[in-house]
Amino acid sequence: MGANLALNLADSGNRVSVYNRTTAVTEEFMATEAGDKDIVPVETLEELVAKLSSPRIILLMVKAGAPVDYVIGDLAPLLDPGDIIIDGGNSLFTDTERRYQELAEKGIRFVGTGVSGGEEGARYGPSIMPGGDPSAWPEIKDTLQGIAAKAPDGAPCCEWMGPGGAGHFVKMVHNGIEYGDMQVIAEAYDLMRRGLGMKPSEIGNVFSRWNEGRLQSYLVEITADILHTTEKGEPLIDRILDAAGQKGTGKWTVIASMESAEPTTLVAEAVYARIVSSDPEGRDAAADRFATPIGDLDGVTIDDIESALYASKIVSYAQGFRLLQAASDEHEWGLDMGSVASIWRAGCIIRAVFLEDIMHAYSQTPDLADLTHDDFFARALLVAESSWRKVVGGAVSSGIPSPAYSSALAYFDGIRSRSLPANLIQAQRDYFGAHTFERTDRPRGEFFHHEWE
C-alpha cells in the first residue's frame, strides 16, 4: 500500500521522496513505473529529511505497534518544530493518542490516518480518515483529498475526523463493520450452499443480482466474482481451506465497545466465527463425535435470506455508529456521523449504496441516537422481520451456524423489550454480594438492599 500511495501521490502532482530501511526494496520500486514519475529515492532518513521543504510532511506506512514507535524514534530528532508525521497504518487509537501527545511536546505535528481500500484503493483512490493535530489539516488537506476516492456526487472520500486518535478510531470501527459485512455475506452463502443445495455458480448469480439492488457493495460484487471463479473446471472456492485469519482491528472494536458500554454484538460474533474457523482439525474431530443435523431449509427462500442479511447489516451499522458517537463524546472528538458515512461511500472496503441511506439519515437528524430510530431503517427492519426469524429458525433446525443473523435478531429483540430478565440478575447480585438494586415503584437513582436470608 505504501508503494501504491507513493504512485498515487505522484500522479496527483506531488513530488515524492521514498525511503525503505532495506535499500533493495527501494531499488525494486524505482525499477517499476515509479522510475518514470516525479519520485526521488533516498537511502537514509537523513537524506529523506534533507529532500523535503518545510513544513515537512512524512507519511509512514509500516506495521502497527512497536515498528511505528521505532521509526518515529529515529525520525523525530531529525525534524523541526512544525513538521508533520502521518501514520497511515492500522494503529490502535490509544497508541495514536499517546504519539500525538509525545510529539506535540517536541513541536512536531502528528496525524493518525486510517486508509482503506487495499492495494488497488491506495493506487487509484482510497477512503482516508485523518485525525490528530488540527493545525496540520490545512497543510495536508489538499494532498490527501487529491489522492482520495471520489464519491458518486464528486466529494472526496477524505475529511478531518477530529483531534488525537479520532482518525484511527474511525478506521478501527470501519474494519469492525467490515468483519460483520463479510460474516453476514458468508452466512448467506452457507445457507444457500448447505441449506438450499445450490452450486457456487448459482449462488454467484444470486449475489450478482443482489449487487443491483439495496445490497449493492464492493464486498457483494467481489463475492459474486469469487463464486464464479473456477480452477481446472471446478469452483475455486471449494479448494480454499475454511480457516479465516484476522489482524486485530475487529478484536479492538469489540474491546473498545465493551469499554464504552456500547454492544457491537454482530462484530463480536464475526470475530468469534473466525476464531472457530481457525481450528479445522478440532472441528473435524467434533464432527466425528457429534452427528451434524444438516437438513433442508424448509420454507426458506433466497428472498428470505436477502432480508435477513439486510436486517442484520442494519443492526451492525447501527451498533458501529453508536460506538463512534460514544467514543466521540468521551474523548471530545466532535465526530460528524454524516461525514463518516460520506467518506465510506467510495474507495474503502465497505463502500456501498447503503451508506447513502445512512448519510441521509444523519442529514435529516444530525443528533440521531441510533440508526434504528430513523424512519427508513425502522421500516426496513419491520418489513424484514418475518423473513429474518424464518431464516434464523431454519438455520437452527438445520444445524447451520448463523451467529451474525442470530445475534443481530437477539439484539433487535432486546432493545425493543419493555422488560428483560435483568431484574433477576440484579436480585442475584444483591443476594450474594449486596450490590443493591433499583425498584420499579421508586424513582431511578434510589438503591435498595434486601436481606434475602
How does the SSE layout of this entry go?
Elements (H helix, E strand, L loop, with lengths): L1 H10 L4 E3 L4 H8 L8 E3 L3 H7 L5 E4 L5 H10 L8 E4 L5 H12 L4 E8 L1 H7 L2 E6 L4 H11 L14 E2 L2 H30 L4 H11 L7 H11 L1 E2 L2 E2 L13 H11 L5 H13 L2 H10 L12 H30 L5 H7 L10 H11 L10 H24 L4 H13 L6 H12 L20
Parallel strand pairs: 1-2, 3-4, 4-5, 6-7
Antiparallel strand pairs: 5-6, 8-9
Helix pairs in contact: 1-6, 8-11, 8-12, 8-14, 9-10, 11-12, 12-18, 14-17, 14-18, 15-16
What does this structure look like?
The protein is α/β, with parallel strands linked by helices and 453 residues long. The chain is 55% helix and 8% strand. The strands form three sheets. The chain has a five-stranded mixed beta sheet, sandwiched between helices. Helix 1 (2-11) packs parallel to helix 6 (118-124) and helix 12 packs antiparallel against helix 18.
Query: With helices defined by DSSP (H or I, 4 residues minimum), what is the helix count?
Result: 19
Largest sheet: 5 strands, mixed
Give the C-alpha Rg.
25 Å
Strand residues, percent: 5-15%
Residue windows where pLDDT falls under 50 for at least 5 positions: none
Distance between the termini: 64 Å
**Strand line-up in the sheet with most strands:** 3-4-5-6-7
Order of helices and strands: HEHEHEHEHEHEHEHHHEEHHHHHHHHH
